[in-house]
Amino acid sequence: MKPLLLVSLSAAALCLSACGKKAEPVENTAATSAAEPAAPAPAVLSPGQAFANTAAASDAFEIETSKLAASKAQSAKIKSFAEQMIKAHTDSTAKLKTAAAAATPAITPDAALTPAQQQELADLQTKSGAEFDRAYARLQADGHQKTLDALKAYAASGDVAPLKAFASELVPIVTAHLNMAKGL
Hints:
This protein has seven helices and no strands. The chain is mainly alpha-helical. Helix 3 packs parallel to helix 5 and helix 3 (47-72) runs antiparallel to helix 6. The longest helix is centred in the last third of the chain and has 29 residues, at 129-157. The radius of gyration is 23 Å and the shape is globular.
């Protein structure tokens, strides 16, 4: 499918670039193309794929920050919450994979952390003691709020039925997690 897409995009680009220009000899165009390779077009994700990636990255972020908290937190309350989040987000990841596989065509969630999540995780790793606990609690509240917003939006207007059902099912769970995080 990718070669067909590239051929289609190349043909469209040639047609658009030819508009209003004089024809150039073929050998000049070939020489220019060989000397200056075209940059690859950015991938455009479907709304379902974008949502699945967002949900997967959110789970991965919650799991990674919570593993860190389970070993590094000072407060027993933070450690307990972190253990709950590891289990809950591992379960959520499994449910997401099941819902994504049920889509037609099947979707494969990409759990790669966003640059912002990578930075937040790196910053959290540098903290210790009460400062770590406060930073972790803040990240959990912020992360769960963003996730809740994404779930509500996709549940209301998503384009993939199994993912919409997944989003709807998780809204009350993430709401409970958000309330717990705010109480840390």
